[in-house]
Structure formats: structure tokens, C-alpha cells
Amino acid sequence: MAASGISGAAFRLKSLKDTDSLARLGNEIVSCRACPRLVAWREESAAHPPRRFQGQRYWGRPVPGFGDAGARLLVVGLAPAANGGNRTGRVFTGDASGDFLFAALHRAGIANQPSSVSQGDGLRLRGAWIAAAVRCAPPENKPTPAEFSRCRPFLVREIAALPNMKVVLALGAHAWRASIEALTANGSPRPKPIPAFAHGAEAAIGETRLLGSYHVSQQNTFTGRLTPAMFDAVLERVRSTF
Q1: Is the CB of residue 100 less than 8 Å from the CB of residue 221?
Q2: Domains of the chain (ranges, CATH numbers)
């Protein structure tokens, strides 16, 4: 018997059900057309890629989360990049932000390889799930408040389908706020006052530990505002809960 009193067979069955729930949610996300501005932009970006990606078939749809259904860690970003996740169909894949993120996750033993260029490139996450607050690539990387609101139920339901999740790592202030909203929508008490975002910030949202990091965007990593050492230090605090 497992320590929780659940038999191995029952635990495997529960994991299969969780995976099925995430798969069904992923299918719903991919078919969403709730935000006309985002639909138009993601499809325009796919139809007119920059020269370096011309000839490639773009995903051009909302991007679901991915990873380990038994995840204890949920990483939340802002939204797919127009020529990253919107091209590959996997958030943080195929762009400089993903290069920084997956290299760090690999150093921490969470990813099996240090980069991801496509959905079928062999990337596997151990104990982690990666998602975004908004599932479509937004113009200028700036979703509107209404777009955040319409997309929020996806993150709420994703959290509900990750029963082993203990830690949320929010990449940037928008992801920090979106994570708090999604956690409280799942029944966690809303903290008062709402914790302020900062790099390295930490807050308890009910039983979930929320950690913040500057976003892994080129604007931060190329300027030195976010360095590999800074991000590794946050991931080390994440790993201390595993």
C-alpha cells in the first residue's frame, strides 16, 4: 500500500484519469475562438511568418499546457510567442525565452534535455507542468484585461486537474496575478492584501506555495535583468519542496 493508503493499482488509475482530464481540457483549449482580436493575430502571424520561418507550417491556434500529469510544480507564463509557441504548438518552445527556460529546467533535473524546438523533439518534464495565463499569441505580447478574464477558466481547470501540485512558479507580474486568481477560484483563500510581485517573491495561497521570477523574455535575459544564476536560485527553492 502507498503511504496515503491508496493501492498502487488505484493510484495508477487515478493518474490515468487525471491525464485524461488534462487531455480533454487541452482539446478544448485548442478549439477556442473566444477572443476575436487574438484569433485574428495568431492566424495573421501564422500566415505571414518572418523570413527565417517561411515554409514552416504554423500551429496558429491556442496552445495547451504540457508536461507531467503528476506534477508538483506548475510553471505559468504570460502567453505563447507569435513565432514560438504559436508556431510549434508548445508554449516556450522554439524561441529564446524557451532556450533560457529549458536550459534552467534541465540543470535542475526537471527537464530531460536543455532545449525544445518542436512538439516531437523528445522533451520530457519530471514533476512539472507548463502553462500560460493566456493561450493565444497576443499583439505586442499584451493581452487585454478582458482576454485574461476569458482565458482564466482554462488555468483554473488545469490546476484542478493537477492533484499533486504544491508549487506555482509565476514568470512575471501578469502570471503572478493570474496564478493568484486561478488558485483562489479553486478554493484557496484570497490573501489580503494581495502579495506584490517581485523576483524571488514568495507567498502562501492556501496550501500552495507561490514563487515569482522575472519573465524569461529576451527583454530580461539579454539585458542581464534576469541571469541564469538568478533563475537557478529560484528553481532551487522550488526543488526544496519536492
Answers
A1: yes
A2: 8-239 (3.40.470.10)
pLDDT in tens, the chain (242 residues): 233 333 444 434 444 456 669 999 999 999 999 999 999 999 999 999 999 999 999 999 999 999 999 999 999 999 999 999 999 999 999 999 999 999 999 999 999 999 999 999 999 999 999 999 999 999 999 999 999 999 999 999 999 999 999 999 999 999 999 999 999 999 999 999 999 999 999 999 999 999 999 999 999 999 999 999 999 999 999 988 76
Compute the CA torsion angle 96, 203, 175, 219 (nearest 10 deg).
-40
Nearest-angstrom CA–CA distance, 68 and 213: 21
pTM over 0.85, yes/no: yes
